Amino acid sequence: MKNVGFLIIILLISSAVLAQEKQEKIRWQQDRPLTWKDFKALPDDSNSYSANTNSGISYTWSYSTSSGTPILEHEVFSNFYPQLSWVKEIENEQYLLAHEQLHFDISELHARKLRKALEQYEIGRNIRQDLKRIYQKIEAERTAMQNKFDKETSHSEFREAEIKWRKFIQQELKKLQQYSS
């Protein structure tokens, strides 16, 4: 009986892992802006907002000393998750879509910051902990900036603040152009 329970737990965990791996994502690309067709989740009617963008950063890394010199290889991605992003009926579609795109751009900005930090990282004795700490710091900054953006623009209601944020993010992306994907 214990074996059956154990098998069920393993199957549930495997299903969750496979679901995460198969989750649809759109990688950030300069020449591929979001469209409303990318927002595939059902709207959250309990939420007063007109749309929700679910985006984030992820990374993979490997470490080798086979050449005699320590080498760290890494990849960093900025992703948009269509199945977790939604839109309700809206009036000014272009303006709101630009707001949602800026959330994705903020994720890309932090992906570039992570790429830069990983390229500048000097391999130490605690590589796993070091990389985790670097990622957590940049992820915390990304989350804080997303929240600040929504607060200062009142979720796209304050157009003047929205325009300032658009300019700021474009300038910051340009500064880190060499770290684009």
Task: Write structural notes for this entry.
It is a single chain. The longest helix is centred in the middle third of the chain and has 28 residues. This protein has one domain. By secondary structure, it is an alpha+beta fold. Helix 2 packs antiparallel against helix 3. The N terminus is likely disordered. The strands form two sheets. A three-stranded antiparallel β-sheet has the order 1-4-3, covered by helices on one side. A two-stranded antiparallel sheet has the order 2-5. It contains four helices and five strands. It is elongated and about 60 Å long.
Number of β-strand runs: 5
Query: How do the strands of the widest beta sheet line up side by side?
Result: 1-4-3
- Estimate the global geometry from the Cα principal axes: elongated
Helix content: 40-55%
List the helices and strands and how they pair.
Layout: H1 2-22, E1 26-27, E2 51-52, E3 55-64, E4 71-80, E5 86-87, H2 93-120, H3 127-153, H4 159-175
Antiparallel strand pairs: 1-4, 2-5, 3-4
